[in-house]
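Kindly draft a polypeptide, keeping tokens residue-aligned:

***
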Amino acid sequence: MEQRILVIEDNPDISRVVQYELEQAGYEALTAPDGISGLTLAREEHPDLVILDLGLPDLDGAEVTRRLRKNSSMPIIILTAMDALDRKVALLEAGADDYMTKPFYPEELVARVKVQLRHQQHGDVIRVGDLEIHPQKRLCYFKGHEVRLSPREFDLLTFLARQPGRVYSRAEIEREVWSGDLPSNSNVVDVHMANMRSKLRDLDGYGLIRTVRGIGYALKTP
């Protein structure tokens, strides 16, 4: 499954170049010309990473960063024409993971995207509301209480938690969590979902995993 990158950039020339370089690198690239449409796309498409221009026509880039951070831990790379240290520090404190000063080399931007996605894949902690997952330690907590999951349940919940709100079909889940190694009529995904729901429900986590009838499953956003 292609990783999805959202580019929020009001300069159409820069947007086209970045989109082209990302697609050449094997990513799916979405573009938005301003902050409002970018936030809407982020909410609807659940990208794996956002590239965000600081100087948008409607919203300040730091404000867009803060709004994105409310619902997702996805990496955010800022593009800025300003080189002031205090401004860069403010952006990082607002939730940005990296920044690049314009003008920049598109190849370097793609390299930084790859680094951030690797960090996201192997990061120390994933937090979604009251849910906290430690991938390296293979520990999961909900409201401070440990959730005792089987190895496959842990992989499944971690997969959903990396993009909360995004609906995954059973086929996508089977491919990513089981490497597609399941018979076509298997209900193993549904069984694991039911087991996880039961364990989370015991800790007042009812409704955390959402079923979208006829499509698949999603982890509910805070």
